[in-house]
Design goal:
250 residues; alpha+beta; 3 domains; two-stranded antiparallel sheet; 30% helix; ribonucleoside binding; RNA_pol_Rpb2_3; transferase
């Protein structure tokens, strides 16, 4: 709405600072969570059916545990590359690939490859073009030919992808640094020009009247090793916001 009214410029959807990469650990965690919930629900159904009978024999729950359910699901997903997670409505093909050991360079290329979820059949130049925001993070020249050109890229050799870190230390530090909980304030305080909104991983944590103190405190604590080294913080004076990120995939 602000861009339509001319107050701000439109965001670039291909800007790499707003994107997150899905790592192998997060994908495996989603798959394991889905299979484990299915394992528990199946075990609960068997227990309810057995205990519902009045003359039923003593229930030995261990005998009804399918010990190979989780193993077979993980092995099948890694072997075929088909990632089917019903709880999250995720169906993907080719998630896992065989690692090529032809040379050291080919190993590096396979292990640092990034596949875009954009449809390869669409002839759109935006997602395929080289973005200035990719400077230092992606290799500008290593991309395949054909319909995958620009959609399959490789990380730069010096780049590093962040993993998820705990939010609780950051939240405690924010409240100790003068951030007021948004639940304890009147809704009109958000529109007060004296306040800055504090976001942590896209979620409103609270409001502050001294954003520079928040930024300097987080950076000082991070440099002393008391916070994760990849916790980032920045301010936006036009939006009256303080953005803090501790999530993975950056």
């Amino acid at each position: 709405m602000q861009a339509e009214m001319g107050d701000t410029e439109c965001d670039d959807r291909d800007f790499y600072g707003n994107k997150r990469l899905e790592l192998a650990g997060s994908l495996l965690a989603l798959l394991f969570e889905d299979v484990f919930k299915r394992f528990n629900s199946e075990l609960k159904r068997i227990a309810d059916n057995s205990l519902g009978k009045t003359l039923a024999a003593p229930l030995d729950i261990v005998k009804h545990m399918r010990q190979d359910l989780i193993t077979n699901a993980l092995v099948d997903a890694l072997a075929t590359g088909n990632w089917t997670i019903k709880r999250f409505k995720m169906e993907r093909q080719g998630v896992t690939q065989v690692l090529s050991r032809l040379s050291y360079i080919s190993v590096l290329g396979m292990m640092t490859r990034i596949n875009s979820t954009f449809e390869k059949t669409r002839k759109v130049s935006g997602p395929r073009s080289l973005q200035p925001s990719q400077w230092g993070m992606l290799c500008p020249s290593d991309t395949p030919e054909g319909e995958s050109c620009g959609l399959v890229k490789n990380l730069a050799l010096i780049s590093h992808i962040t993993t998820d870190s705990d939010e609780k230390p950051v939240i405690r530090l924010l409240y100790n640094s003068g951030v007021e909980d948004v639940k304890s304030l009147h809704f009109s305080a958000i529109h007060n020009p004296a306040y800055h909104i504090v976001f942590l991983n896209g979620v409103i944590v609270g409001l502050t009247i001294d954003p520079q103190r928040i930024v300097s405190t987080i950076r000082a604590v991070r440099r002393h090793g008391l916070l994760n080294e990849f916790v980032s913080v920045s301010t936006n004076a036009a939006q009256r916001s303080v953005y803090i990120a501790s999530d993975g995939g950056r």
